[in-house]
Amino acid sequence: MKKLSLVLMTLVATMFAGQSIAGDWSKIRIATEGAYAPWNFTDSSGKLVGFELDLAADLCKRMKAECEIVGQAWDGIIPALQAGKYDAIMAGMSITDKRKKVITFSRNYAATPARFVVSEKSAMANFKTGLDAMNLTEVDANEKAAINDIVATFKGETVGVETATTHENFLREYLGDDVTIRTYDTQENLDLDLQAGRVDTALASMSYWV
User: Fold this and answer.
1) Which of 16, 84, 175, 180 satisfies CB 3.0 to 4.6 Å to 158 for a cystine?
2) What is the per-residue pLDDT for 9?
3) CATH number of the domain located at residue range(s) 10-110 in this protein
């Protein structure tokens, strides 16, 4: 696979329900997706593993808290937190203003860019935006020009993305009228379609592709 040069920076943090994280934290139930390596994924034995699982274990040890990690499908991970099925989320979730309206974030513990990935045989494999990174919080003239180049290059293509993510939001806002957006419940299922040629390109965190 070939990684394209667009980079969208996102901040990753722990999420809590409500507006306060004060209270009794001697026992904590933490949810993760279990399908977004290297942050969190399921190994061949069915065990949840990854950076966030290791981080959670270290944090719980420091807090002297008894912690339980549970798997939860991505598209229901925030509603289940709000319903009280667990106390926190650690699942490679980026901080956005929309999410901050319904859940509370900790300080971010990682910053990761996003990239498009295509087959090496794709006509888009040598595409470059001319920018090392793109900040979509305040789009300047150079970034707007780069987005226009992306739209022109990807026009008519099918782009795969995991549903209910900031990456999907980017595609719908900037490319929605010019490409076919195909959403997936997990990044792993998107990978299968990308490798099989059922989508032309995919967008996700660069850490997943490395």
Assistant:
1) 180
2) 46
3) 3.40.190.10
